[in-house]
Design a protein that fits this description.
- The protein is flat.
- The chain has helices at 18-48, 50-53, 56-84, 90-123, 128-131, 134-167.
- It has six helices and no strands.
- It is mainly alpha-helical and 168 residues long.
C-alpha cells in the first residue's frame, strides 16, 4: 500500500478566468442592450400613434414588451451581480428574485389574454368593441399583476419564515 497517495493536492477552480468572465459579460450586456433597444423602439412607436393607444390588442402587446424589457434587464443585472459579488444581502436578493418571478409569470398570462382577445375578435366581431375596451384591458393588466402577486406571496412568506433567523 502506498501511503503517499493519500497526500494528493487538489486544485479547486471557483469560476471562470477573468478574460472568460469578461467576454461572457460583454456578450450578454451587448445582446441585452440590442434587445432592449428594439423593444424601446416598439414602445416609442406605440406612444406616438394614437391608434395604438385605443386598441386593446396593442395595449396588451406593449405590456408584454415592457414586461420582457424588465425581465431581460433584471436577468442581465443578476448575471453581472453573480460575477461581481460573492455575497448579497437577503433582502436585496429577495427583491430581485420577486420581480423576476413576477415578470416570468406575467408573460404566459399576458399571452393567454392576447389569445382570448383574438378569439373574441374572430368569433364575435360585432361585440368585440363592447367586450374589449381600453378600460377593461387596463383592468386586465392589473389582474395579471395581482394574479402573479398572489402566486408568489406564499413562496415569499415561506422563505422569509424559514430564513428569518439566518438573515439576522
Amino acid at each position: 500500500m502506498n501511503v503517499s497517495a493519500a497526500n494528493v493536492t487538489v486544485a479547486i477552480q471557483y469560476g471562470d478566468s477573468f478574460s472568460k468572465a469578461l467576454i461572457k459579460n460583454l456578450i450578454v450586456v451587448a445582446l441585452s442592450i440590442f434587445i432592449n433597444y428594439i423593444n424601446a423602439g416598439l414602445i416609442y412607436t406605440f406612444s406616438k400613434h394614437q391608434i395604438f393607444n385605443t386598441n386593446p390588442r396593442y395595449i396588451l402587446f406593449v405590456h408584454l414588451v415592457i414586461n420582457d424589457m424588465i425581465q431581460v434587464t433584471l436577468t442581465v443585472a443578476l448575471f453581472i451581480i453573480s460575477y461581481i459579488f460573492f455575497w448579497m444581502p437577503m433582502t436585496v436578493c429577495y427583491f430581485f428574485i420577486l420581480i423576476a418571478i413576477f415578470t416570468t409569470e406575467n408573460t404566459p398570462l399576458n399571452l393567454a389574454c392576447m389569445a382570448v382577445e383574438c378569439y373574441i375578435a374572430i368569433w364575435m366581431p360585432l361585440r368585440h368593441a363592447q367586450i374589449c375596451t381600453v378600460k377593461k384591458t387596463r383592468l386586465l393588466i392589473l389582474l395579471i399583476w395581482a394574479t402573479s402577486l398572489v402566486s408568489v406571496l406564499p413562496d415569499l412568506f415561506m422563505t422569509l419564515a424559514t430564513d428569518f433567523h439566518t438573515s439576522l
